[in-house]
Design goal:
The chain has 90 residues and is an all-alpha fold. The chain is built from five helices and no strands.
């Protein structure tokens, strides 16, 4: 996988955020209201695939974007999942 992406959902997060007419600042603020102290820069890293997303963060992102969790994986290929899973190995 190109660039050693650390998550599978970053591209869809960016797409759904844009479709919702939200800036990164606005989505980060919405996530903060749910209790996740997230900076805009961290959201940018998630969207770019440079930062992992844990399961709790994943569900908060889906909730803020008004998507069902399965929708966050739309278009993701199984081979990419294995590549991302391997990123945590030394």
């Amino acid at each position: 996988m190109e660039g050693g992406r650390k998550n599978l959902v970053g591209g869809n997060i960016q797409r759904y955020r844009t479709e919702a007419g939200l800036t990164q600042e606005e989505l980060a603020a919405a996530l903060q209201r749910l209790g996740w102290d997230l900076a805009r820069g961290t959201l940018a890293k998630i969207e770019a695939g440079l930062r992992r997303v844990n399961d709790g963060e994943f569900f908060l992102l889906a909730k803020c974007l008004r998507k069902e969790p399965f929708e966050m994986f739309r278009g993701v290929k199984a081979a990419h999942a294995l590549d991302v899973a391997r990123q945590g190995r030394d």
